[in-house]
Amino acid sequence: PALLRASSPELARRLRGLALVRGGFVSEREAAELLREVEPGLGRGRYQSDHWDRAITGYRETERGLQGGAGRELLLRVTPAFPPRRPPRPSAHVLDLLPEGHVGPHVDSVKFCGCTIAGVSLLSPSVLRLRSLWDPQDWLELLLEPGSLYVLRGAARYKFTHEILPDEESFFGGLRVPRGRRVALIFRNDPPGENP
Ligand code: OGA
Ligand code: MN
Known about the structure:
Elements: E1 4-6, H1 9-14, E2 19-22, H2 28-42, E3 48-49, E4 56-62, H3 69-78, E5 93-106, E6 116-122, E7 126-132, E8 139-144, E9 149-153, H4 155-158, E10 160-164, E11 171-172, E12 175-176, E13 182-188
Bound molecules: N-oxalylglycine and manganese (II) ion (MN).
Manganese (II) ion (MN) is lined by residues 106, 108, 162.
Protein name: ALKB7 dioxygenase
InterPro entries: AlkB-like, AlkB-like_sf, ALKBH7-like, Oxoglu/Fe-dep_dioxygenase_dom
GO cellular component, one term: mitochondrial matrix
């Protein structure tokens, strides 16, 4: 519960089970192995800005990265967060954010992404903020420590934007969360109507 803050107890209740975070989902040893596996796919240098789908700066990304043993293992361990008939795609979206990079508020495209998003954060802590599309006063913040897992589903995925706060705004309540380089492995399922 200390990893989650909400604009009101009502909102926390409304999103219970739909937006969640679990610290210590991967050990430091697994994290090192995962980084070793995904790093080659990210290429060298060449961080970019802006993306057609979401406001994002200071990042590199790739969609292939589960060749190795730790990646496959992680996929198996996040699969229970997905509906049995809508499992995660067999590849992870690997997002490498510079300390000065951020992900602006957006909703993942319903064309390319199904009902559930699960993200594992490595290296640097960060704050993931959700904000209601209906009422911007309604927000939820998740403290993403290295090795943590977060899951967004249902209303938290469709009715709220999500963003990774830039360093200068990176606070969790009174707690300053200094941003370093952060690598996230993000698992998604297909939208309904595809590969039924
Ligand atoms: C995204 C996104 C969040 C994260 O790439 O669409 O929301 O955990 N990323 O990096
Ligand atoms: Mn997203």
